[in-house]
Amino acid sequence: MTERIKTLGEVSSDIATTITARGGLYDESVITDKFYEHLFHNAVEHFSHLTRMAIERFYYQTGRTLKFGFVNGERLGGFACVGNENIDFIGINFGSISMVSAIFTRMLTNPNVLAFIGDANLESNAGHTHFIPPWEDLNNFSPCKPACPVRCAFSKHLTLTGLDFIFGHEIAHITNGHLGIINRTESKAPDNCREKLTQLENQAIELDADHGATEWVLLFSEFVRKMRVKLPVEGYDSVGISWRNFYVDEPVTIAYTFFASYMLLRMTNLESWDPEHQLKAFQPKPPLRMGSLLRAYYFVLTEYHYLSPKETMSHLKDWYNASEKALGDILAESGKGETQEKEIESYFNEVCQYYDKVNEAYDTLAKELSEFAMVETAKVTHPRPRTCDYVVLKGLKHGAEFIGILEAKHSETSDKRLDLQCFFMDRRLPTGLPFTLNFVPEFEGDMIDEALTADGKKHVALIEEVTGLEAVELSSISDKTDLLHFTLQYSECFKLKEDLITLLEA
Length: 506
Known about the structure:
The chain is of the alpha+beta class and 506 residues long. Strands 7-6-5-4-8 form a five-stranded antiparallel sheet. The radius of gyration is 27 Å and the shape is globular.
């Protein structure tokens, strides 16, 4: 069973009716450009992971499950449903992918935006735009591929982070109990209906979903950071360089998640904000949501990263000024816009004052929301069997020191075969020796131990004509940086890559 649906038959009839009313399921076969095909598939992977994370956290042993799909909607955003047949659903408008990729790909074509990423000199501001439409507009605001491969790949990271925010917002609508109250306002049953939400109450629910979105974005970015050892991101290609720029340094990652989330809210509101107008609106306008985002990150930085209030405010000011400047750059014909720092600060002061009213409205709903909010479930996880390991070997080769890093991992095609690699220096250049070991069906011992201490070790000694091979600690070769970086780039052993990253960052 997959998390994504491709046909209406995979959900209950009430959800199928909602999907149809909103434009039906999106047909991905119309995508022909490789760049956007790759982006779409990455979005599917991100949403699948987020769905699995939500299921493990809230759905385990509840009898319900969560699915998602793409809908033919032009507007930025999505929707969530609590279905009648134990299936909940999140629909994402395909226009979201188009709009979010347009803002970030166009930004990265501007050499003044994030100029330190890749080679900004290759860019010609091809993505300049005079305005940002409120919905998908491929004639006036289509995605624009950056010329620099690293910047092109980096624009995908920003795009996917923005999309994660949209998806996380919809998860929160389900798990925080919002849909329970909303469904009651639409119920025709006398014993299960409630009055319509006020403007402030609805704004409170939407901002609560934004807080949930921020949590999911940060959780997922940390998940991706920890997946480093399983991803091909150690090379010097555009994918590896852009990934490391975005994810290696945790504080930098948090700054980029803020940038992507802030820009997602900012791009649809280029006008001023007025508290009186907001008070009459049912939905929170982007500036109010941007102010709420600042509060969410203030909490994260002070509570989880132990920054002082002064340090936190300094970071947030730098982040939203950088975000505002990037927006100004993309809208300026010269490619270099200006920001009004004092106006921005005044603007957020007004938002913060209004926010207190929203908090009061949320407090009036808190008890009712608790009736529908999902309780976190404890999924039992079992230790996974060891699939790979490594050993560092030292010996003599023709009288000179030989250092090798031998890794072994279970074959994906045969239960009694191991795939091995030995990394070492040959004529002052790092290289690798791949080989396999086959075990007889009757062998019942630990194949990895056998390979690293006996058969695999003997094979390396024989092929490379090495004598006196002995196992040593990885830390003892910390000065062999060329070999360590080469091994990190080409290793297929997660444990080895984790230890190499720790050693190289020490």
